[in-house]
Design brief:
Ribosomal Protein S5, domain 2; 2 domains; eight-stranded mixed beta sheet; four-stranded antiparallel beta sheet; 8 helices; binds ligand 2P0
């Protein structure tokens, strides 16, 4: 066993068919499969430094000590790493996010994918991507999808130990190089976290069973749209899935209303651009007010301009579909 400092960058991912509901809340086993695209540039850089002098893991995120809830999740990942490496040595961990924390842009996905990648390397483990994705999942479910680049499927799996609840790449980034526009809406962390929100939906949303059924079908329909490289077909599935998730959230007691007025503004704008102006674009929305728009490269300037002009959209970020988590030498 060799212990040494390691750094990794992992990007965020945006689900095209969503993860909202768990069969195991400890190790984040989902009730349904989901499909995502991994984004380039936006993500988390994490450095793991094993340190024999520490009695517990220490973690700093954007120069602030990590909150106790976050530290519990980090502890789950690092416990598995130590078990696999056969050591009790704890680590000092430093993470820097290039994506706003807790605004519905899945910062926990990049954070735990980067932690898994850097942690495994720092503890001398050579894990394949399937195993790494399972490790990242124990920190935050959606993180398992950020291990891979491109278009990614997270299998729900059936096993209690989660060994089959891992992700795989379906298409490489260059196989279908759609562009991505993030319409940033709202400020500050959301009031109800995804972890708590999905638990509430499972327990109280009258639509929850129908939602799960929809997810299984949507994964199949999304795969078909991907095989055909058909944006219209993809829009039908992806927008329908996001709206079904938000319907399930809104019907939760008390209702989870993540949207702001500008969220609805972007929804209507994307539909106008597609249906009236013939542009290839579609929207999706995570557990927050911001909207992510996918578009063909040729339509990017018009789509970006239209979305950026909507009142309440504070900023737009243009990005691409990119590679997954990777080590950063000298990072
Ligand atoms: C997704 N979300 O598929 C969905 C869409 C939010 C809405 O994955 O409890 O932060 O850490 O497993 O991964 C957010 O859930 O939750 C999420 P935990 P996570 O991207």
């Amino acid at each position: 066993m060799s212990l040494s400092r390691a750094a990794a960058f992992a990007p965020v991912n945006i689900a095209l068919t969503k993860y909202w509901g768990k069969r195991d809340h400890e190790i984040n086993l989902p009730l349904a499969p989901s499909i995502s695209v991994t984004l380039s540039d936006l993500g988390t850089l994490t450095v793991v430094q094993p340190d024999e002098s520490l009695e517990g893991n220490r973690m700093v995120v954007n120069d602030q000590p990590l909150d106790p809830k976050g530290l519990v999740k980090v502890g789950r990942v690092m416990r598995v790493v130590r078990q696999l490496a056969g050591t009790d040595v704890r680590a000092g961990i430093r993470a820097v996010n290039t994506v706003p924390t807790a605004q519905g842009l899945a910062s926990s996905a990049s954070a735990f994918a980067a932690l898994a990648k850097a942690g495994a390397s720092a503890y001398g483990l050579e894990l394949d991507e399937r195993t790494l994705s399972g490790l990242a999942r124990t920190g935050s479910g959606s993180a398992c999808r950020s291990i891979h680049g491109g278009w990614v499927l997270w299998h729900a799996g059936e096993r209690d130990d989660g060994a089959d609840s891992v992700s795989e790449q379906l298409l490489a980034p260059e196989d279908w190089p759609l562009r991505v526009v993030v319409a940033h809406i709202g400020e500050g962390p959301k009031k109800v976290s995804s972890t708590n929100g999905m638990k509430l939906s499972e327990q109280t949303s009258p639509f929850f069973d129908a939602w799960l059924k929809t997810c299984h079908q949507d994964v199949e329909d999304c795969k078909a749209a991907m095989i055909n490289r058909d944006v219209q077909q993809l829009a039908h599935v992806v927008e329908g899935n996001a709206l079904a998730m938000h319907a399930t959230m809104m019907a939760t007691r008390p209702g989870l209303v993540y949207w702001q007025p500008a969220t609805i503004g972007v929804i209507h704008a994307v539909r106008r651009l597609r249906e009236q102006q013939g542009l290839s674009c579609l929207f999706t929305i995570d557990a927050g007010p911001s909207v992510v728009v996918l578009t063909e490269a040729g339509d990017l300037p018009k789509v970006s301009a239209a979305i950026g002009a909507i009142p309440g959209v504070t900023r737009i970020t243009q990005t691409r579909i990119g590679p997954g988590a990777h080590l950063v030498p000298n990072g």
